[in-house]
Amino acid sequence: PFGYFAATKIKAIGDEFGREVSWKPFMIAAALKVTGGMPLPMVPLKGEYSKRDMERTSRLWGIAYRQPDKFPISSQAPCRLIYWLQAAAPDRQEEAILKLYEAYFVQGLDISSPAVAAQIISSIKGSEEELIAVTQDPEMKARLKDECDLAIQKGVFGSPYIIVDGEPFWGSDRLDQVQEWLRTGGF
User: Fold this and answer.
1) Given 43, 67, 126, 129, which residue has the most CB atoms within 10 angstroms?
2) What's the total number of domains in the chain?
3) Contact 177, 6 (CB under 8 A)
4) Residues of the chain whose pLDDT is less than 50?
5) Contact partners, residue 62, CB within 8 Å, separation at least 6
């Protein structure tokens, strides 16, 4: 959910400094294969703490949040739809990302389901049938794989991972550093 938390704030930060946000969803599972890690909730001790931290962060930032019953999930279908939107409705990507995050982390919907993800995105662009087909499209599958490979080449290993002028920042708790970096031109 830390990617969700950051997604609710990153555009305002970009706007404050005249920067555009380039949304690049990726599969954390691909990065975990490289790092040898495992999803945070499954890490002994740290997983239990993380649940508390997620709830505390949502309260601090005033962001609606409910731990989904099924967590973690595959993000293949949502990621493919977001990359499809990059061409079909680029000015609506952020809206789509926030709708998907809210559907999962507030409403508890299983957005790993192509049908569920398609229903959410259809309120923005396309029919549910068309969008389900997008999630299975070989070009979209290849695009997501390429984007994941590129992310890993750039050193991305978690979410949120924000790159500003080549400088990487990992974690929603680094947004203050992102702002300071943009304010000062680096430190």
Assistant:
1) 126
2) 1
3) no
4) none
5) none
